UniProtKB/TrEMBL annotation:
<comment type="subunit">
    <text>Component of the Sec protein translocase complex. Heterotrimer consisting of SecY, SecE and SecG subunits. The heterotrimers can form oligomers, although 1 heterotrimer is thought to be able to translocate proteins. Interacts with the ribosome. Interacts with SecDF, and other proteins may be involved. Interacts with SecA.</text>
</comment>
<keyword id="KW-0812">Transmembrane</keyword>
<feature type="transmembrane region" description="Helical">
    <location>
        <begin position="21"/>
        <end position="39"/>
    </location>
</feature>
<feature type="transmembrane region" description="Helical">
    <location>
        <begin position="203"/>
        <end position="224"/>
    </location>
</feature>
<keyword id="KW-0472">Membrane</keyword>
<dbReference type="InterPro" id="IPR026593">
    <property type="entry name" value="SecY"/>
</dbReference>
<feature type="transmembrane region" description="Helical">
    <location>
        <begin position="144"/>
        <end position="164"/>
    </location>
</feature>
<feature type="transmembrane region" description="Helical">
    <location>
        <begin position="71"/>
        <end position="96"/>
    </location>
</feature>
<dbReference type="GO" id="GO:0043952">
    <property type="term" value="P:protein transport by the Sec complex"/>
</dbReference>
<feature type="transmembrane region" description="Helical">
    <location>
        <begin position="386"/>
        <end position="406"/>
    </location>
</feature>
<dbReference type="InterPro" id="IPR030659">
    <property type="entry name" value="SecY_CS"/>
</dbReference>
<dbReference type="Pfam" id="PF00344">
    <property type="entry name" value="SecY"/>
</dbReference>
<dbReference type="GO" id="GO:0065002">
    <property type="term" value="P:intracellular protein transmembrane transport"/>
</dbReference>
<feature type="transmembrane region" description="Helical">
    <location>
        <begin position="116"/>
        <end position="138"/>
    </location>
</feature>
<comment type="similarity">
    <text>Belongs to the SecY/SEC61-alpha family.</text>
</comment>
<dbReference type="InterPro" id="IPR023201">
    <property type="entry name" value="SecY_dom_sf"/>
</dbReference>
<dbReference type="GO" id="GO:0006605">
    <property type="term" value="P:protein targeting"/>
</dbReference>
């Protein structure tokens, strides 16, 4: 405890770090306050929360702003959608590939296109969002309400984008990811209280057991996020003027889960299609009715089987497009580096690809298990709200953002010659000697 208090004191002793932390807290407070400002023309007393399926997932990410029909009801989710679209375009379309290679000017162009696409997506989603609000809660003309809501929701999304960018520039951590994490974490106290009340006094021991399981699940996700496979790299001796520099031995860190949370997001999006399509013929076919009811229940074994298989497929797909062994091998060759025992060039690329393929399988299986664990938790009697914190997209996002934020704080402390956040030493990934392959 004494070391922890000393670390907190050291954090606030650094002027720049203290200002950044206070800025982050201030921006987050504004974001949370906006989540409770209801859209003009909505009677909050008549609102009926729709938290089923995709709506429930969005409401979790947005910290209740969706069910509150607030001005931040769509949050930064349209921006996330636009970013994913642009990311896929930079892989598939040569024009965007060229733009990405233009350096800072290319990134500015891509960011501008992303913002414009965000506005378009927000306007489209605003229409769909208005349709989810029950008619009793709308206190003005429906057409006028739709038009004004589209404008307000778009302005709210743009403002959330601005907050996220300000957190990145003036605060700590990645602003966009931070806003998503805060939305998720804001639901935790209520979910924890509801779970405790549901168990009552005779279930106190069971509640403690659930907390212990949650702790081990979080630790497992941290291991998955941090796990890397090191490929040793040797750099040849170099001559600089009259000096001879000995070769350096470093390593390439290949993450076991290089795809991050994207496979779950892609798979989750596709899992809504079977029930939506089957709903078109539900009244005419018993099979369609069965498919619709089965895939609307995320605790059914059929749903989780298909969900897990999709995550396996998307993990390999997203790893393949995000980690390019050919580019890594070329960069190593240009910088005079080589993998011991492997010829530079094509042989190095094949070697890296083989290792990447092998480590992706256990990472994909573990990611699939994490994704379906909330359904397993619900099957054992845990409430729906609390079960969302036992895995899935929510937990992976929270762990990733917290680790990234701690690493940034760690770097500030180490630059000022203070002890780090962890008693055992440095946080992995920020301060170790890693081969810079880009």
């Amino acid at each position: 405890m004494k070391k922890f208090l000393t670390t907190i004191k050291n954090i606030f002793a650094i002027d720049d770090l203290r200002v950044r932390i206070l800025n982050t807290i201030g921006f987050i407070a504004i974001f949370r306050l906006g989540s409770y400002v209801v859209l003009p023309g909505v009677d909050p007393n008549q609102l009926k929360a729709n938290t089923a399926g995709l709506f429930g997932l969005l409401d979790t990410f947005l910290g209740g702003a969706f069910s509150n029909a607030s001005i931040f009801a769509l949050g930064i989710m349209p921006y996330i959608s636009a970013s994913i679209v642009l990311q896929l375009l930079t892989i598939a379309v040569p024009y965007f590939q060229k733009m990405q290679k233009e350096g800072e000017s290319g990134r500015k162009k891509i960011n501008q296109i992303t913002r414009v696409l965000t506005i378009v997506i927000t306007l489209a989603q605003a229409v769909g969002f208005v349709a989810t609000i029950n008619a009793e809660a709308i206190a003005i003309n429906t057409t006028l309400f739709t038009i004004t809501s589209m404008i307000v929701l778009t302005a709210g999304t743009i403002f959330c984008m601005w907050i996220g960018e300000k957190i990145t520039d003036k605060g700590i951590g990645n602003g966009i990811s931070m806003l998503i994490m805060i939305g998720i974490v804001s639901r935790f106290p209520g979910a924890l209280a509801a779970e405790f009340l549901s168990k009552q006094l005779n279930g106190a021991l069971l509640f403690l057991f659930e907390l212990a399981v949650l702790f081990f699940v979080v630790m497992s996700v941290i291991m998955l996020t941090q796990a890397i496979r090191r490929i040793p790299v040797q750099y040849a001796k170099q001559v600089g003027g009259s000096s001879l520099y000995s070769g350096q031995r470093q390593f390439i860190p290949l993450k076991v889960n290089a795809a991050g949370v994207m496979p779950i997001i892609f798979a989750q999006s596709l899992m809504f299609l079977p029930s939506m399509i089957a709903g078109l013929w539900a009244d005419q076919s018993e099979t369609a009715n069965y498919i619709g009811s089965t895939f609307s229940d995320f605790t059914s074994w059929q749903y989780n089987l298909v969900f897990g298989l999709l995550i396996l497929i998307f993990t390999y797909f997203y790893t393949a497009i995000s980690v390019d062994p050919n580019r890594i091998a070329e960069d190593l060759k240009r910088s005079g580096g080589f993998v011991p025992g492997v010829k530079p060039g094509k042989a190095t690329s094949e070697y890296i690809d083989a290792i990447l393929t092998r480590i992706t399988l256990p990472g994909a299986i573990f990611l699939a298990l994490v994704a379906i664990f909330p359904a397993i938790a619900m099957m054992f009697g845990i409430t729906r709200e609390f079960s969302q914190f036992f895995g899935g997209t929510s937990l992976i996002i929270m762990v990733g953002v917290v680790l990234d934020t701690l690493q940034q704080i760690e770097s500030y402390l180490l630059m000022r010659h203070y002890d780090g956040m962890m008693k055992s030493g440095k946080l992995r990934g920020r301060t170790e000697n890693i081969a810079m392959v880009s």
